[in-house]
Design a protein that fits this description.
Elements lengths: L5 E5 L3 E5 L5 E2 L1 H14 L5 E8 L5 E8 L7 E5 L2 E5 L4 H4 L3 E6 L4 E6 L12 E2 L1
Parallel strand pairs: 3-8, 4-7
Antiparallel strand pairs: 1-2, 4-5, 5-10, 6-7, 8-9
């Protein structure tokens, strides 16, 4: 795993870091993950993002806390929040950014993925 860090700015001025698996995590998403981990009362969990077959467009995102470290996982530490991507998902997620929205219209994690050629109306799956 590379330890080189590249700082960049995304739309909306969200500062991010990009390493190893190419996924970035906004500061808002980092804060939400830290808050959720504090509620869980565990310090051994990482945020795992994966791509699995399914959904109406062919592929779905899986975003969950995981204590496991599997062979060939790419792990990037974003100021104490570790993001894990399995080797099979890396090509589908390279360049993707994870943010957290908390507005009157929507609350939850969002994934902006430049590799997605299309998505379904619900926004949960892509191709």
């Amino acid at each position: 795993m590379s330890t080189e860090t590249i700082s960049s700015e995304t739309a909306g001025g969200i500062a991010t870091e990009e390493r190893a698996h190419g996924v970035t995590l906004s500061e808002g998403a980092r804060e939400k993950v830290r808050s959720l981990l504090a509620q869980e009362g565990r310090d051994d969990l990482r945020l795992r993002i994966a791509v699995q077959p399914g959904g109406c467009s062919g592929l779905i995102y899986q975003l969950f806390f995981d204590e496991r470290e599997l062979e060939n996982d790419a792990i990037v530490d974003f100021d104490g929040v570790e993001v894990v991507v399995d080797a099979m998902s890396i090509p589908y997620l390279d360049g993707a950014s994870i943010d957290f929205e908390d507005t009157i219209q929507k609350q939850g994690f969002t994934i902006d993925n430049p590799n997605a050629q299309g998505s379904c109306a619900c926004g949960d799956s892509f191709s």
